[in-house]
Amino acid sequence: MKQNPTRTCAVLVDLPDIVVLRADRDGPMLQVHVETGATSAGCPDCGVVAQVKERVVVKYCDLPVYGVASTLFWHKRRWRCSDRDCSKKTWTEEDRRIAAPRMAITDRAGRWATRAVGEAGRSVNDVAGTLGCDWHTVNDAVLAYGTALIEHPERFGTVTALGLDETGFVRLAPYYRTSFITSIVDVGQGQLLDIVEGRGGQGSKEWLKNRDPAWKAAITHGTLDLSSAYKAVFTAELPDATLVADPFHVVKLATSKLDETRRRVQNETLGHRGHKDDPLYRCRRLLTKAEERLSEDGRSKLLNLLEAGDPKGDVATAWHAKEAVRELYSHQDQELAITWLDELAADLSDKIRPPEVRSLGRTLKRWRLEITAWHACHFTNGPTEAMNNLIKRIKRVAFGFTSFRNYRTRSLLYAGKPNWSLLETIRPR
Ligand SMILES: [Zn+2]
Predict the structure, then answer these.
(1) The pLDDT of residue 35 is above 90
(2) pLDDT tens for residues 187-206?
(3) Domains of the chain: which residue ranges?
(4) Ligand 1 centroid – CA 15 distance (Å)
């Protein structure tokens, strides 16, 4: 038995209440013309039966069919209220099951694109290529459906350890203005909670101010780099949380002080910045390497180079200081760690030490409680660093972001653990 060809096409198009008018091929694209079966309508204002005033053809990007990109042309009815005194006049038919208002993409293609970009991490350009539409059409869909997912009230629950971390600078097109971004992370469970804009702690402070007090009360620990801005945020918004200085940043500070010392001594002894033949320049990698990872050869090479380029022993002192800071983390016992840190800080702050080492000593003294708090809980910004890698990855994928909202949405879809099983039922925003 033969089937009506447009009926066959309607089976393929498979949209609710849709009548297929015709289907054509335009080069590599499939074009499907449809109308709805809505032959009558009542005025939404007064209820009087409406008349069709005209047809408006609206173009939508749809899902590919048999691997062929397809466009849906919806011949929409424009209705007019029959009551001349009614203020409603005219309106165009809408059906959210086919497409959300103001979108240039069908509802199903919009949801599919959101998953391809947000969960699989594909670029908007790439997905637009698959769908045969432009970048904006896909990006608008990712924002509308993605926002509904990431703003879902149950995206994250109770958090016991919260980390603040500066993601660095994000260059946002079109003016390539530089933004300061802070990631707010559940460091216990490795979930990106949010991303805020603003210099220093300003953005994260606002964010915490807007949280439910009961949610904030469950946070027992706050992890941070050695930044007084974040410390002030925690002190103001989570006064009962124990602050933990991230070990990675503490060791990084000691390493950067060693580097500063090396540059200064280089300049003082040779009167110029490091050249490839200078002893101090030649040992810069050996200096930053962990002591236990130096080979016997590497060790004697380091000592010889220091002998040649470090007459007062300043670089050697800074190197020992860096190794002593690293050793702090081999202690398991918190009491022992505090004793060790206090002795170390006092020794490094001694006036006979080079200025860079004294500065390190003062910082250790100032942050002694936060640094040794790690020994009791072992929370670190480690997961935050992992999160930053994810964010860097999506930054590469998208070749820079056009707006902070794009950047935040993409980051949270990718690293914020949204509940993807809600994708089919959420309402785009
Ligand atoms: Zn009316």
Answers:
(1) yes
(2) 998 899 999 987 789 999 99
(3) 1-98, 247-377
(4) 29
